[in-house]
Write a structure and sequence with these properties.
By secondary structure, the protein is an alpha+beta fold. It folds into two domains: 180 residues, no CATH class; 281 residues, no CATH class. The strands form three sheets. Strands 8-7-6-5-4-3-11 form a seven-stranded antiparallel sheet, sandwiched between helices. The protein has a two-stranded antiparallel sheet with strand order 1-2. The protein has a two-stranded antiparallel ribbon with strand order 9-10.
């Protein structure tokens, strides 16, 4: 048998044992009708292993597939939507009682017992899968322990959560890998670029699946920004954590990049002008967040902004460690700064928005597309981060499911409130109040020797958070 035939057979065999290809997963989802895009049942997906009944798949499904009963309407009869699946966000909002109830507890509680009693951590040795699965469990743990820390519910409810949290903490500890191995995990954004799955230019065409190739390598073109000031006193270091990272209780760190048409010097000059002339410092100091003047200089047409979410993992000493695993990439390109409908954009108000999320079936399939899949613009989705994660948020978020544009508009666009142009980029100034993180003022370009400081700062924030201290309390129990 010649070498090409052998290679073909090997490729077929490897494909047959790969966890969760697109074709395999299609059968788990509705593709038309009012349930389009949702799962057909609570059945586990073949994500961590090709066998859907594998323990890791069953544990993941128990925490990442959640039913929602929908009442009848004029358009359709009453139905049950099975939400979640291969998603990055744990479907839990501030006032939800779903994960604390006895029914769900009886369903999920035996699974960590099976994991711990049967040496479940040893079932899969792949470091990437172990880190992702640990991170998935961590989200469920954080939600439950945060409720207990805030004394939500009666003693019986808090005891149930505490029991489950203790088991999940032990599972996370057994899944952990040494910090040196965490440092060897792939840079999945770089893998996405190298995959050839994304165009190198967008030409302001929102139909193009675009990711900037020079984002992490060309600092003259793409400028990472931060609110960090050297020698900041440690008493206020936690004010330097972004609102996004706080929403995930420090399990993810975020990097923010700007690209102006004329490159880095234009970004630097613009922020200096904004700091010197564009801010009403007296009003800002009185109200505790930065207020732009009405005549503040505008961003140039053609400005691009990218928000990169990367995973934080726990090493074998249970220390939070930043990784280069990309969980999401949110990109915006401004065709105008006045919110008008011309030129055409996919939002209709002057900017194109592209949103990519990590999907495990791609990530574990040889880093296909770097594990990133573009979010459909017209399909309504639940938003968990930021608004949905607040303690007062109702069970399915403030307003249920929204299309991508609506989610972006909530924070970044409002012709009525004049949140256009520079005002639609909250990251350029600290404009969210002290509790939202960062220091009052204008963002600063990150120097080459400061790359990585944001991730380390979020890891430090997590290590001082009550949810993490409780995690250490469970160690060895």
């Amino acid at each position: 048998m010649n070498r090409s035939c052998i290679s073909a057979i090997v490729a077929i065999l490897l494909g047959s044992i790969a966890a969760g290809s697109d074709a395999e997963l299609n059968g788990y989802y509705h593709h038309s009708g009012p349930l389009a895009g949702t799962l057909k049942s609570e059945a586990p997906l073949p994500l961590f292993d090709a066998d859907a009944d594998h323990l890791w798949n069953r544990m993941f499904a128990a925490f990442y597939i959640r039913p929602r009963r929908m009442p009848a309407t004029e358009e359709h009869e009453a139905m049950v939507r099975f939400e979640g699946g291969d998603v990055i966000e744990f479907l839990a909002w501030g006032t939800t009682k779903y994960w604390s109830g006895t029914t769900v507890f009886r369903k999920v509680n035996p699974l960590p017992d099976e994991f711990l009693d049967g040496q479940g951590a040893g079932l899969i040795s792949d470091p990437l899968k172990r880190v992702v699965f640990q991170h998935d469990i961590w989200a469920a743990y954080d939600h439950l322990i945060d409720l207990d820390n805030r004394r939500v519910g009666d003693l019986e409810t808090r005891a149930r959560r505490n029991t489950l949290c203790m088991k999940l903490a032990k599972c996370m500890q057994q899944l952990a890998i040494p910090a040196a191995e965490l440092g060897q995990l792939p840079d999945t954004y770089a893998a996405a670029i190298n995959s050839g799955a994304f165009a190198a230019r967008h030409n302001f065409d929102a139909t193009v699946n675009y990711l900037p190739q020079g984002l992490l390598s060309d600092s003259d073109e793409w400028v990472e920004i931060d609110f960090y000031y050297p020698d900041t006193h440690e008493d206020i270091m936690d004010r330097l954590i972004s609102l996004h990272a706080r929403s995930f209780l420090g399990r993810s760190h975020y990097r923010i990049f700007y690209r102006f048409p004329d490159g880095r010097n234009q970004v630097v000059t613009y922020r200096q002008d904004l700091e010197e002339k564009g801010i009403d410092w007296k009003l800002s100091s009185q109200f505790g967040f930065t207020r732009l003047r009405k005549d503040a200089a505008q961003i140039p047409v053609g400005t691009e902004v990218l928000l990169l979410q990367q995973m934080i993992a726990l090493d074998d000493q249970l220390r939070p460690v930043p990784t280069s695993i990309a969980e999401s990439v949110q990109f915006r390109a401004y065709r105008n700064i006045d919110g008008s409908g011309e030129p055409e954009t996919n939002t209709g108000v002057g900017m194109n928005v592209l949103d990519y999320r990590m999907e495990r079936h791609l990530l574990f399939d040889g880093l296909s597309a770097g594990g990133l899949e573009r979010e459909p613009e017209g399909d309504p989705q639940y938003r968990v981060a930021i608004g949905g994660s607040k303690p007062v948020a109702p069970d399915w978020g403030y307003e249920g499911r929204k299309v991508l544009f609506q989610q972006c508009a909530d924070c970044h666009l409002s012709p009525k409130l004049k949140r256009l142009g520079v005002a639609s980029i909250p990251s350029i100034v600290h404009s969210g109040g002290f509790g939202a993180g960062a220091m009052m003022g204008v963002a600063r370009p990150v120097n080459p020797d400061q790359v990585g400081v944001r991730g380390k700062r979020v890891a430090r924030y997590k290590s001082r958070h009550e949810s993490y201290r409780r995690l250490l309390d469970f160690r060895g129990k």
